[in-house]
Amino acid sequence: MRSAYTAGVLDFFLDEEFEFPVVATASSGALIGSSYIAKQRTRNYQILQAVGNNSKSVSVINWLRNREIFNMDYIFDQIPRDIIPLNYQSFTQSPSTFIIGTTDIQTGKPLYFNRYETIDDLLTITRASCSLPVLAPSVRYQGKELLDGGISNPIPIHPLITQGIKKHIVVLTRNRGYIKKATKLNWFFQRLFKNNPELVRILRDRHILYNQTMHLLYEMEKRNEVFILQPERPLRAARIEKNKEKLEELYNQGYEETKAKKEILLAFLESQTQDKTSTIPS
After folding, report:
1. Listed range (40-49, 50-59, 168-177, 236-245) with the worst mean pLDDT
2. How many whole angstroms separate alpha carbon 20 and alpha carbon 89?
3. Residue 136, Ramachandran bin (φ over 0: left; ψ between -120 and 50: alpha; else beta)
4. How many other CB atoms are found less than 10 A from the CB of residue 118?
5. Taking Cα atoms as reference points, which of 120, 102, 119, 133 lies closest to residue 30?
6. 274: pLDDT confidence band, cut at 50, 70 and 90?
7. Phi, psi (rounded to 5 degrees) for 256
8. Which of 28, 78, 166, 271 is deepest in the core (most CB within 10 A)?
């Protein structure tokens, strides 16, 4: 739900017609990013409102019964197909490569997808990338058992660097200076995922990877290789926030803070006219 901030950023991009050859996402960024690729302005805002209005969309009772605190069928099937449909034709016509990161539950390693033959493929992979451990069951796809892409690679900059991409815009939902702390649930993960030791390891060390990646990004920022968009103040919302006023505030914060940086963002973009550019919405 903190990705309401990202939704505001990407709607500003659509208003200004900012397009990127590559868009790499993980976790909720995959859901928010698909609307951006399809050029459906305000769709993400409408989704967040729909989730906030549905009393069963986030439920502890549902978690106890079905092992998912979010109503995943509602969010990843009913909404994109019937309630606030994703324009899949527009999505497929986009010239941008859209990357979704997931986590292989057996190896604990990131697994990336960038081809979606049908809308079923796209929705299934997006659902997998958003399936938080403990709060949602894993998703089976092409013989793999997948979980939240943010576990193994919360900010998927590394595959883009490997591709030789020189310039990046990274959208984060944590304010500058945030340092991720070690989980206190390692004992629980060891018990719950006792048959998946590599997953337990990556969950235990996730804070190390996140903090190392942020250090890399700040170094790249000094070299004018990365433009970072992140909240100027900590977001006032929980991961499962349903308060519509707070969600609207996050959306507006993302839009207005990006708008305020328009000129320096344009200068960054103009400085890379010869280089391929990516964006990473978190």
Report:
1. 236-245
2. 19
3. beta
4. 10
5. 102
6. low
7. -70, -40
8. 28
Is residue 265 pLDDT above 80, yes or no? yes
Residues β-bridged to residue 143: none
CA distance 94 to 47: 21
3-state secondary structure the chain: CCCHHHHHHHHHHHHCCCCCCEEEEECHHHHHHHHHHCCCCCHHHHHHHHHHHCCCCECHHHHHHHCCCECHHHHHHHHHHHHCCCCHHHHHHCCCEEEEEEEECCCCCEEEECCCCCHHHHHHHHHHHCCCCCCCCCEEECCEEEECHHHHCCCCCHHHHHCCCCEEEEECCCCCCCCCCCCCCHHHHHHHCCCCHHHHHHHHCHHHHHHHHHHHHHHHHHCCCEEEECCCCCCCCCCCCCCHHHHHHHHHHHHHHHHHCHHHHHHHHHCCCCCCEEEEEC
Contact call for residues 249 and 124 (beta carbons, < 8 A): no
User: Per the structure block, which two tokens stand in for 208?
Assistant: 């190390």
CA distances from 217 to 17, 64, 149, 152, 173 (A): 25, 39, 19, 17, 15
Tokens representing 20 are: 């990127």
Q: Is pLDDT above 70 for 183?
A: yes
pLDDT surpassing 60 at residue 262: yes
What lies within 8 Å, CB to CB, of 259 at 6+ separation is 12
Whether residue 99 contacts residue 156, with contact meaning beta carbons closer than 8 Å, is answered with yes
Read off the tokens for 11: 């709607």
